[in-house]
């Protein structure tokens, strides 16, 4: 019995010593370099809206570039200002985003399906307009 334990222990020690020969610095991995002083002068507004079902949609509006990023159900959609119609749409014109003073609608155009429709919080809208 002692021989079996000694053999197992020495086998585990040998295995652990030989398995740990991998270098901590992997040459295949590139170091991530943070950009140096990139200051953006864009006017960006972030907002989260909840619909009546409890689903949340995050809206990031870049007023300088006339674009909106919509994050819904783990997906991100980048939409640009549509000067022909009110609102924003994707470059392939599949999705549309419209907003009024109190409501936000995000829909899939080719299926005429509303993906999200929610109302803004009335209290924050009143405070912002005062």
How would you explain this protein's 3D organization?
By secondary structure, the protein is an alpha+beta fold. 20% of the residues lie in helices and 36% in strands. The protein has helices at 2-19, 122-129, and strands spanning 44-50, 56-62, 67-72, 75-81, 88-89, 95-99, 103-108, 113-119. The chain starts with a helix and ends with a helix.
Give short descriptive properties of this protein:
about 20% helix, eight-stranded antiparallel β-sheet, elongated, 2 helices
Summarize the structure.
The chain has 130 residues and is α+β, with helices and mostly antiparallel strands. Helices cover 20% and strands 36% of the residues. It has helices at residues 2-19, 122-129, and strands at residues 44-50, 56-62, 67-72, 75-81, 88-89, 95-99, 103-108, 113-119.
Helical stretch count?
2
**Secondary structure tally: strands:** 8
Strand count, sense and barrel status of the largest sheet are: 8 strands, antiparallel
Question: What is the helix fraction of residues, given as a range?
Answer: 10-25%
Arrangement of strands in the largest sheet: 1-2-3-4-5-6-7-8
Give the end-to-end Cα distance, rounded to a whole number of Å.
84 Å
Structural class label: alpha+beta
SS strand fraction = 35-45%
Q: Name the shape in a single word.
A: elongated
Stretches where pLDDT is under 50 for at least 5 consecutive residues are: none
Mean pLDDT: 76
**Secondary-structure element string:** HEEEEEEEEH
Radius of gyration: 27 Å
């Amino acid at each position: 019995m002692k021989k079996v334990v000694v053999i197992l222990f020495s086998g585990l020690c040998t295995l652990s010593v030989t398995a740990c020969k991998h270098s901590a610095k992997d040459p295949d991995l590139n170091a991530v370099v943070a950009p140096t002083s990139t200051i953006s002068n864009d006017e960006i507004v972030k907002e989260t809206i909840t619909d009546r079902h409890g689903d949340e949609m995050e809206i990031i509006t870049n007023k300088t570039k006339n674009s909106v990023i919509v994050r819904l159900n783990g997906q991100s959609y980048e939409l640009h200002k549509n000067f022909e119609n009110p609102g924003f749409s994707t470059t392939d014109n599949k999705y549309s985003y419209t907003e009024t003073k109190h409501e936000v609608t995000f829909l899939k155009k080719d299926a005429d399906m509303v993906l999200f429709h929610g109302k803004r919080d009335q209290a924050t809208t009143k405070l912002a307009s005062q």
